[in-house]
Design goal:
Among the domains are: 1-98; 100-221, no CATH class. 69% of the residues lie in helices and 0% in strands. The chain has 19 helices and no strands. The longest helix has 23 residues, at 2-24. The two termini are 39 Å apart.
Length: 407
């Protein structure tokens, strides 16, 4: 029951923080108030039951917590009270119901160009999407303590700069779009391959990311990269039902039952991608969507155009020259030209200090070693992946592979 409550609260975190941020005008105060409301919920809901309107309940309790804090700080005459001066008794009576615009406003607030790109993305993942500091650290492949310090500094900068809570004007959007799209992409990535919990997929995060992507496309209907990102998410999420078996075990792409793929999502994603490409302004999300389309249009795993995928990743490196993109290109090359071709690249990347923390790289290397018949080495690499404590679904897959190779 506690796990279910935790998931229920987490799924409503971002909307509650967005509403409280509108009411208080202070991101830190909004997060603190919602956090306190969540603690109360975990104390009361197991015995009293979950309210019919859980989000409204959280917002109501959080608003009272914020008011209580304001009164305490007003008595002390602190700077915090001054920063919340507009959230007084009369202001607290304004509409406290959640609004779709609140979430987009909070996202663009956190993605203000006054912050570094990395800080913008990390802060938005925390404040808007409710990801834990540990989950964000895993996305950036850095220690949790390092990420915690970055988040504290980012929130302090927003408070000190008095950055307003609103969706920016049309002329301001381009400076923030890149960070906003990155946030949506990382939220989906965490949902698509969850770093915590027993399930392989966190459907709530996948759905939230798609909702965000649609919202951005709605703000910028002619922006090809926004369209490309939405296309990528739809084409990828279309495979959700086929990515795990009845026991929740990971099913690799080439082994998936394609009859379970969502044809409607694929059709929408392909149409969006075609419309984006016609704009003549290619970008990284359009390229990744094109990779996803190569999979969705193949009638079987054996008919996948891996050479085209390798070329798309090679082009993507021009936009995102990262070792993660290079690792994906290596896997595509391995499928197109044989496992040895990809293993050469992955062996070199395995020496990268940051990628040594990435379990997926070790799994990819082990899979290629397995295909080459180098089972002993594959077991060693799989074991290295296990030491990184991957999510339960990935751990189960690795253990199964080690068992198969040890026979």
């Amino acid at each position: 029951m506690s796990a279910q409550l935790d998931q229920l609260i987490r799924s409503r975190w971002w909307a509650a923080v967005a509403t409280l941020c509108r009411l208080t005008g202070d991101l830190g105060a909004a997060e603190d108030a919602v956090q306190e409301a969540c603690v109360v919920a975990l104390e009361q809901w197991p015995s009293a039951g979950v309210p019919d309107n859980a989000l409204g309940w959280l917002i109501g309790v959080a608003r009272h917590k914020a008011l209580d804090r304001l009164r305490r700080e007003a008595v002390r005459g602190t700077k915090e009270a001054a920063s919340m001066r507009e959230f007084n008794e009369s202001g607290a009576e304004q509409d406290a119901s959640p609004r779709a615009a609140d979430t987009l406003s909070l996202m663009f607030l956190c993605c203000h160009p006054a912050l570094s790109l990395e800080a913008r993305v990390a802060l938005t993942l925390r404040s808007v999407c409710g990801l834990s500091t540990a989950e964000i650290a895993a996305a950036f492949l850095v220690p949790e303590a390092t990420m915690a310090k970055r988040l504290v500094r980012a929130k302090a900068k927003i408070r000190e700069a008095r950055i307003p809570f609103r969706v920016p004007g049309e002329d301001e959007l381009p400076d923030r779009l890149g960070a906003v799209l990155r946030v949506v992409y990382l939220v989906f990535t965490e949902g698509h391959m969850a770093s915590r919990g027993d399930a392989l997929v966190r459907g709530d995060l996948c759905d939230t990311a798609i909702w965000f992507a649609r919202g951005v496309v709605g703000l910028l209907p002619g922006e090809p990269e926004a369209m490309g990102l939405l296309a990528l998410l739809l084409l990828t999420d279309a495979r959700r039902a086929a990515r795990s078996d009845d026991l929740g075990e990971l099913v690799l792409l080439e082994e998936q039952d394609r009859r379970l793929w969502d044809a409607g999502m694929i059709a929408e994603g392909e149409a969006l991608l075609e419309a984006a490409l016609r704009k003549g302004r290619p970008g990284p999300y359009q390229l990744q969507a094109a990779v996803a389309a190569c999979h969705s249009t193949a009638s079987s795993a054996g008919r996948t155009d891996w050479r085209q995928i390798a070329l798309l990743y090679a082009e993507l490196i021009r936009y995102e020259p990262t070792p993660v993109v290079e690792a994906n290109r290596a896997v595509a090359l391995a499928m197109a030209e044989g496992p040895a071709a990809g293993l050469v690249i992955l062996d070199a990347l395995a020496r990268h200090p940051q990628l040594q923390r990435w379990a997926q790289l070790h799994i990819a290397r082990a899979e290629l070693l397995k295909r080459l018949g180098r089972n002993g080495e594959a077991i060693e690499v799989y074991t290295s992946a296990l030491k990184l404590e991957p999510a339960p679904a990935a751990r189960s897959f690795i253990v199964r592979r080690i068992r198969e190779l040890s026979r």
